Amino acid sequence: RKEVEQDPGPFNVPEGATVAFNCTYSNSASQSFFWYRQDCRKEPKLLMSVYSSGNEDGRFTAQLNRASQYISLLIRDSKLSDSATYLCVVYGQNFVFGPGTRLSVLP
Amino acid sequence: EAGVTQFPSHSVIEKGQTVTLRCDPISGHDNLYWYRRVMGKEIKFLLHFVKESKQDESGMPNNRFLAERTGGTYSTLKVQPAELEDSGVYFCASSQVHLDGGQPNEQYFGPGTRLTVT
Question: Which end of chain B is more exposed for a tag (fewer CB within 10 A), N or C?
Answer without folding.
Answer: N
